[in-house]
Design brief:
Helix content: 25-40%
Shape: globular
Largest sheet: 6 strands, antiparallel
Structural class: alpha+beta
CATH topology of the largest domain: OB fold (Dihydrolipoamide Acetyltransferase, E2P)
Radius of gyration: 25 Å
């Protein structure tokens, strides 16, 4: 496995976390004020409406849109699945006006509220705690590697009668002491939640999941992660304190970025983000994949590029498909594609070749942090898979409908362009310190810059040593801007 690095870039008003394998970007998280994730949060909600026709309920959890609670997620325990009669309905579990403890499974997306569940799970470093859901379950990777039995035995000894655990993949080499510490921490968190529920009145948030940087340390910082590079001394100090308390072995992996270039520029991340927002991905083999997101599903089309291969068309199709799989798996994760994904591979007739493609695809997505389920080839030769949706896709986070094409295409949102402009100012300030600068952009971008909190602009102006002038010019494209020294010719970016 290639060396993995986490990059944490802190700019005024925004943090971006990139996960890199070798030199290839495979995951990106963008953290902006007002856009915090609610996935994993636990709420004491109120049932607002029951929809018997679809066996679901809407639960108020304090967000703009109510949470969606389906019948399967309303059942309090997985053991009810085994004994249910098939005649039950959503009203067997909740009624309008009920106070109900729920957990957000994903973030609200577009016009849909968050999906919620009554089956609470609390993730730790090695285990996921499932209070009220008795039993020990193993990650598929541990089971496949034959490491499940000794770990399951240790966890079973530590578990109480009314609780369960899911053993995560990284627990394969965990000691009993590490597992005990993880369990004690998770139990303490659950006790805090249950105590808070006794006095809380709906609607209330009883538990917030970790912020993106701390989640990185919990979910990604296994032995394969070699370095965590940060470009902000304050955040680095916070991470060292967290690691010292929760995972001392990570402290030595924390590094301060001290080079003269911007962190993401040093690792050529910006160009890879642009590639992840483009529909066409060129493959080293000469072929390409085309990725199209729609409301209902994501479609991925594999193209051979017209290259000739010895062995005939069947061999050429197999080689093209196998060459595309690594990039398909990388872009599914990088773009954070959730829900149904349909892949149109180059047509193959032989069943053994189809099996080889499915096996390779399953292996490629096995390291994805979100569960991916592959159904195999349909009768029409398409591969169907689903990926758990936890947060908005990369395009939904960074792009906005294009006003020039009534939403048929997408461009960078005004917020994204505004933060691009701030980063450009910082670069200019490092080259020409103490030089007054002017930003010219469309009125929607200038409005975002003006509405940034005072501390955000103050930090930028402190770096430049001068106030930054903001000028609206709607003759510029909505996703472009100009940064220039006062009285000089500027540079267009975006």
């Amino acid at each position: 496995m290639a060396h993995r690095t986490a990059l944490i870039e802190v700019t005024p008003g925004q943090r971006r976390i990139a996960l890199v394998e070798g030199v290839r970007l495979y995951d990106l998280m963008v953290d902006r004020p007002g856009r915090e994730s609610v996935t994993g949060n636990i709420y004491l909600g109120r049932v607002e409406r029951i929809l018997p026709s679809i066996q679901a309920a809407f639960v108020g959890i304090g967000l703009e849109r109510s949470g969606f609670l389906g019948l399967a997620e309303a059942r309090p325990s997985i053991h009810r699945d085994e004994n249910r009669t098939g005649t039950e309905g959503i009203t067997d579990y909740v009624s309008e006006g009920d106070a109900v403890l729920v957990q957000a499974l994903n973030d609200p997306v577009s016009d849909k509220g968050a999906k919620v569940t009554t089956r609470i799970t609390l993730p730790g470093r090695f285990l996921v705690y499932t209070p009220g859901q008795v039993g020990i379950r193993m990650s598929r990777r541990l089971a496949a590697e034959g490491k499940g039995d000794p770990i399951e035995s240790m966890v079973s000894k530590l578990a109480r009668d009314d609780e369960g655990f899911i053993v995560r993949s990284r627990a394969g080499n965990a000691t009993e002491e590490s597992l005990t510490d993880d369990i004690d921490t998770l139990r303490a968190t659950w006790e805090t939640i249950t105590e808070a529920r006794k006095t809380a009145r709906p609607i209330a948030c009883l538990h917030r999941d970790l912020d993106p940087v701390e989640r990185l340390l919990r979910d990604e910082a296994g032995p394969e992660l070699g370095r965590i590079v940060v470009d902000n001394a304050e955040i680095l100090a916070e991470l060292r304190a967290v690691c010292s308390r929760l995972s001392p072995g990570l402290v030595d992996r924390l590094k301060m970025h001290s080079a003269g270039t911007v962190l993401f520029d040093a690792y050529e991340i910006e160009s890879q983000i642009d590639d992840a927002l483009a529909p066409i991905v060129t493959l080293p083999s000469g072929g390409s994949i085309v990725i199209e997101e729609t409301t209902a599903l994501t479609a991925i089309d594999v193209n051979t590029g017209g290259r000739s291969v010895s062995g005939g068309p069947e061999r050429a199709a197999l080689d093209a498909n196998l060459a595309a799989i690594a990039e398909i798996a990388r872009h599914i994760r990088l773009r954070n594609l959730g829900g149904l994904v349909v892949v149109d591979f180059v047509s193959m007739r032989r069943q053994d070749n189809r099996h080889a493609v499915i096996d390779a695809l399953r292996e490629a997505v096995s390291s994805d942090s979100c569960p991916v389920h592959i159904a195999g080839f349909t009768r029409f030769g398409l591969v169907e898979m689903t990926r758990e949706r936890r947060r908005a896709s990369l395009s939904e986070s960074l792009l906005a409908p294009c006003p020039a094409c009534t939403g048929a295409g997408r461009i960078k949102s005004p917020q994204t362009v505004a933060y691009d402009a701030l980063r450009h100012i910082q670069r200019q300030a490092s080259v020409l310190p103490a030089t007054p600068l002017t930003v010219t952009a469309s009125s929607c971008v200038i409005e975002v810059l003006k509405n940034l909190n005072h501390e955000t602009l103050a930090k930028v102006e402190e770096q430049t040593g001068w106030p930054v002038d903001l000028i609206s010019d709607d003759s510029l494209a909505a996703d472009h801007f100009q940064v220039q020294s006062r009285g000089e010719v500027g540079e267009t970016d975006g």
